[in-house]
Every structure is written in structure tokens, then in C-alpha cells.
What we know:
Blueprint: H1 10-29, H2 37-47, H3 49-56, H4 61-81, H5 85-101, H6 109-135
Helix pairs in contact: 1-2, 1-6, 2-4, 2-6, 3-4, 4-6, 5-6
Amino acid sequence: MGEKPDLKYRHVVWPTTYAISLISLCVILLDENRYPPMIISLVAACVLSPVLAKVTNSGDIKEHAIGIALVCIPMAGFWMIGPNYFNIAMPFLVWIWQCASWSKKEHPPIRYGVWHGFGIASSILPGAMLIGALLQ
Length: 136
């Protein structure tokens, strides 16, 4: 019997869980009218990225953090403009492509960070909708 292939579900499930947790904390703890939860959660994802790097065994923490920042900081800028295609559909489409193609081989930590960054960026809106529905 051969070895089971690593399908890398941890690089799909953990960034989604991480993003939903961050946006939930931002909505619960911060005033939505003073501090925009989408922007704060994307910046917090960059700051707290070592946690995600450890959980997903992504390698060097600094490289992983740079990969997440490469995606989350521009996405926070797009959220400053307001909800639009570039911060809702585009990260989701890129993330789906990454999940389909990048799971087939090993990558450097910065590439895992970019993968996780797009997972975070595409999961904060559904996370915000979920926490909004639960708090009503």
C-alpha cells in the first residue's frame, strides 16, 4: 500500500477559520462605526500571522508573514474604498484557483502566505455575514 497524498486541506480550512474568528472578534469587540471591522481584521491577520504559520506548518514565520501581508494590506486598501469587485469576488476566484492548483506540490513559506492571504481576504465577508446573522 502506498502513502496517502497530502491534499493540504489545512491550507484551506485554517485560513478560513482564522478569518472568521478575526472578523467575529472585531465585530464583537470594536465599535463598527468608528473602526471598520474588515480593515482591522485584515491588518490583524498580518500581525497575528505567526499563529497561522505554526498551525499549518508553513515553514519560516517571517516569510509566511510577508506572503500574508502581500495580500491583506492591499485588500485592506480596497476595503477603504468600499465593497467592490476587487475585495469580494476577485480574492475568492484567485483563492479557488490556488486551492485547485497549488495543493499538488510543496511551496516556499511566502507562497503559502499568499495562499493563506487570499483565503483570509475571501473569507472575511462571509464571516461578517455569519456573525451579523448570529448577533441579531
